[in-house]
Please model this.
Amino acid sequence: VTASTPGGLERRYRRLLAWYPPAYRRENEDEMLGVLLAGSAGRHRPGPAESADLVLGGIRIRARYAVRSFSDSSAAEALAVVSLLVPVLLLAGAAPGIHEIAWWLRYDGVGANFLLTFPAAPVWAGWLVAGILGLLGRRRAAAVAALLAAGALSVELTLHPQDSLLAPAQVTPWVLLSLLGAIAAAASPGARRGLSRLGAVRYGVLVLTSVLVVASQLWRVHYAMALWLLPVAVILACRPTTRTGRRVLALLALPGTAYLVILRDDRAGWGTSYGLSAAVVLALAGLLWTVAVRRRPGLKRGTSRA
Amino acid sequence: MTERRMQEPSFLILTALAAAPLHGYGIMAEVASISVGRVRLRAGTLYAALDRLRTDGLIEVDREDVVDTRLRRFYRLTPDGAARLAAEAELLRRNADAAVLRLRLAGGAS
Model:
């Protein structure tokens, strides 16, 4: 068979159709070949425009298949949960600044000029906007807001950590968490999906824990202990016995580790006496992880949920 | 939340299928006819649009034939597809009416 015969034309079309996903080709290749050959009108090879159209069509359908398979996966579910959690967890990072605003409001009454005491407030507020948009189901708007907020927060914390009343050594977990949240918001089906996966009660417990961290900073009562509640609440709320829960914890591991490290930082004023607590929390997380990984779906009734 | 506007190839494909089920090559010919030769769909564009319309539930497979050992698949509008096409057509008609009216008013004023 040469390129100048009808068989050669079919072979050339088949070569172009190789740009399509195998699953799509299995279902549609024969039909598409029929259409292509019917429209070939005596030609012996595909034209450049037709070739480009087939290649672009193949790439488009490949991209669509990839998005579909990702959005149906437990990885997408995990990212959706992360996109839900990050704005709430970042509340704890803004706690020192919120404390300063409250302090000034109470004693100096300069609330109208609170930016003097907490110059980075608008940057942190960007995450509040992203979180609210996510909860309202505005997935695209939430993703854009999260990307902008993460960029602004990362630059601000890196260049001017003092604007958030943080020591330079304290910014790492919030920068990492912020960047992770932006990726999750952009790549996942959205916070509403995360909420349906996590459950309103577990989400509410996490919100309350973050609020408690902020409140304990305001009152300066048991602040250090409240900070330790956060990783424990995250681990318990994410249900490490489920595949999605394990993936969420794996995604949060990097900022989470940085968070545990700064809890031991003297400059944070959170004390070094909690090193033992850090070891306990990590051991607890490790234990939960090990138990969860050993419980494969199907081995026990009711554990097959993603 | 407002629904995203339909792209012209999708609109023309749904229009082509509004009267009767058609196979791929038939859709291409019908689209060329409806648009008076202005829009000529190529196979890559056609099948990408058909894939999206099927995923969105606006069209479905009507039947399959084999002609000269080659599969020929006929597509038809779903009730959702017919409703979406009607809504889109109404929107285009209103926009066109508004444009014509304003042009007429502008012409009268000059």
